Amino acid sequence: MTTLIVIAMLLGIAVGAAAHSLGTDAVQQQAIAHYLSIGSTVFLRLIKMIIAPLVFSTLVVGIGRMSDASSVGRVGAKAMIWFVGASLFSLTLGMLLVNLFGPGIGMHRLQGAITSPVATSGMSLDSFVKHIVPDSVFRAMTDNEILQIVVFSVFFGIACAAAPDKARVVMEWTESLSHIILRVTGYVMMLAPIAVFCAMAATITTNGLGVLINYGKFMGEFYVALFLLWCALIAAAFLILGRPAKRLISLMREPFLLAFSTASSEAAYPVMLEQLSRFPISRRISSFVLPLGYSFNLDGTMMYCTFASIFIAQAYDISLPWSTQIVMLLTLMLTSKGVAGIPRASLVVIAATLSQFKLPEEGVLLIIGIDTFLDMGRSATNVVGNSLATAVVAKWEGQLPKNLAQPAEG
Q: Confidence band (pLDDT; 50, 70, 90) for 155?
C-alpha cells in the first residue's frame, strides 16, 4: 500500500502539472481540478462515513472491558498530561523557529482595508463547550463531531462496565459492530491510491507548481520546522519506548503518507488504529486515546498557528516583543481546542488570533493560497504525534507486552 501511495503521489503531481499548463485560464483550470478531485472527494466522504461508528464501537468495547471508571479516568488523565506538554512544546518550537528564520522579514506588506476571508465566529467559551458536550448523539454522529462522540461513548462504556450482566448482549453486539466496521474500513482503504492521485492532481492543477516557488522560503522553513518537530517526537519515542520505537515508526509510515498526500488526518485514522494494534497496543487504549488526540493533540497544527501568526506580523513590519508572543502562544493553546471539526481549523484560529492582537486580518491572504500544501505536512505531523501519544500512554499503563512479538489483549 505504501508503494502504491507514493506512485499515486508522483503520478498526481505529473498529471496536475500537465493539466495546469494546458488550462488556458483560471476558469478552465478550476473545471479540470473539479473533475480530478471527484475521486478524493468520494474517498474522504467514505472515510467520514465510517468514523462515527468506528469511534463509538471501538471506544465502548474498550471502556466496557475496563474493570471500573477509575481506569477510564486514569488513562484520560495520562493522555491529557501528554497532550498539554506536546502542544506547548510544538507551539514554543514554532515561535522560536519563526523568529530565528524570519520568513516574513523583508516582504514590507502594507495594511489595507481588505477583510479576512476566513470567518472567526465561534471562537468563544460557549462554542468550546458546544464542541465538547453533545445535545444529541445522533447529531454528533451526523456531523462527525469526534469529541462529542467520545463524550457519549465514555458514558455509555462506563455504564456497560458498571452493569456487566445486563450489558452483555449490548457489548457482544457492539464488538461485532466494531469488527464489521473494521472490515468496511479495509474495503474503503483499497481506494486510497486513487484518492491520493486525484488529490495531488487537483491541487497542482489549481495552484500550479509555481506557487511552491513563490512561497518557497516560507514553505521550506516551515517544513524544516516540522522536520525538527518530527526529530523531537521520534527522540521522545526512543527515550520512553526504547528500541520498540523503531517498529512503531515503521508501522506509521503508511498512515503518515496517507495523511500527507490527502492533507487529511481523518483519512489516516482507521489505518492508524489498525497499525497500532499490530505494534501491539490494546484497543482499550488506542480506541480511547486516538479520538481524544484528534481534538487535543494536533502537534503540526499547533506549530503552524504560532509560525504563521508571527510570519504575518513580520510581513507587515510589526515588531512583537517576546512578552506579547508568549501571551499569543498561551492564547493559541486555549483557542485552538475550540475548533475541532471546523474545516481549515488552523486558518480560523490564526484569523481570530490576528484580530485579538490587533494584527492585520488580511494577512491570512498571504498563506491561504498555499494552505493545502502546508496542511499536508500538518496532517502528517498529527499522525506522528498521536501515534506516539497512544504508545506512551500504553507504556505508562503497562499495557505493552514485554515481548512485542506477542499480540496485545483486546
A: confident
Does residue 345 sit in helix, strand or coil? helix
Q: For residue 23, what pLDDT band results from cuts at 50, 70 and 90?
A: low
| 357: pLDDT strictly greater than 80 | yes
Enter the C-alpha cell of residue 236: 521522545
pLDDT at 211 over 70: no
The alpha carbon of 50 is separated from its chain's Cα centroid by a whole number of angstroms, namely 17
Neighbours of 403 (CB within 10 A): 6
Range of lowest pLDDT (118-127, 219-228, 319-328): 118-127
**Can you give the pLDDT at residue 408?**
46
Average pLDDT rounded to a whole number, residues 332-355: 68
What's the grid cell of residue 262?
Answer: 490527502
- State the first-to-last Cα distance of the chain, in angstroms, to the nearest integer: 26
